[in-house]
């Protein structure tokens, strides 16, 4: 496989960072990284674009059972066993060291909290059928991160877009059947947040259309749909 092709490197890097590249393919990709500067640059670029989205995920505090489990493993008594004082001291020292290490690991985990369920990530790509400015269309690439409970969405363009004066971008939730629902206007150059209940209910894809400055006057897309992204089934 020719990994020097930019489009192939970008595709593999995006799947690697998103976590959809798995098994033998992921192991092979990781083995190739040290020898391929283009792959490393692509991975760094996707990490820089996607990792900030995790800031929208609230921290999760560990349960009390975590410490109870650590204490049970470190200080579990051995029935019928008698130990010399130096053996008990050694066990205490090892236990203290293990507890300190466990505390350090827990602190790192709290500093970088991991959600109980990963967010849903959707990549929105340019719509080749759209009748729109070619320069705008070529850059109409977005990534959406939706919380696992489906209540919050963060959308960000992979590169800033230039929208003509008097025009705006509007985000839509597209059902498998029926009319799309407006999720509001979004930024063409930075992150946008949507707080709605049941964002993912009856939603098969997301779309972005080019509308008048105040948004669609009809409640449905009136301008060209420049970007589309389907939810994985």
TrEMBL record:
Domain Anti-sigma K factor RskA C-terminal: from-to ranges: 98-225
Family annotation (Pfam families): RskA_C (PF10099)
Domain of life of the organism encoding this protein: Bacteria
Keyword Coiled coil among UniProt keywords: no
Entry-linked InterPro entries: Anti-sigma-K/W_factor (IPR051474), RskA_C (IPR018764)
Name by which UniProt lists this protein: Anti-sigma factor
Transmembrane segments: 89-111
Plastid keyword on record: no
Keywords annotated in UniProt: Membrane, Transmembrane, Transmembrane helix
Signal peptide limits: none
């Amino acid at each position: 496989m020719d990994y020097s092709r930019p489009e192939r490197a970008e595709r593999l890097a995006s799947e690697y960072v998103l976590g959809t590249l798995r098994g033998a393919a992921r192991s092979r990709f990781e083995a190739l990284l040290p020898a391929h500067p283009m792959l490393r640059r692509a991975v760094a670029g996707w990490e820089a674009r996607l990792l900030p989205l995790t800031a929208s995920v609230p921290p999760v505090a560990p349960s009390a059972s975590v410490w109870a489990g650590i204490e049970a493993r470190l200080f579990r008594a051995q029935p019928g066993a008698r130990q010399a004082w130096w053996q008990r001291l050694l066990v205490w020292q090892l236990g203290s060291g293990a507890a300190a290490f466990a505390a350090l690991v827990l602190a790192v985990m709290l500093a970088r909290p991991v959600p109980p369920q990963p967010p849903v990530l959707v990549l929105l790509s340019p719509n080749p059928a759209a009748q729109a400015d070619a320069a705008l269309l070529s850059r109409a690439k977005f990534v959406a991160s939706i919380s696992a409970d489906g209540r919050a969405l963060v959308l960000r363009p992979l590169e800033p877009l230039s929208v003509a004066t008097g025009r705006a971008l509007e985000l839509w939730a597209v059902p498998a059947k029926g009319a799309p629902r407006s999720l509001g206007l979004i930024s063409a150059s930075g992150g946008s947040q949507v707080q709605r209940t049941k964002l993912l209910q009856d939603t098969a894809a997301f779309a972005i259309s080019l509308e008048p400055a105040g948004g669609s006057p009809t409640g449905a897309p009136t301008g060209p749909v420049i970007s589309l992204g389907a939810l994985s089934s």
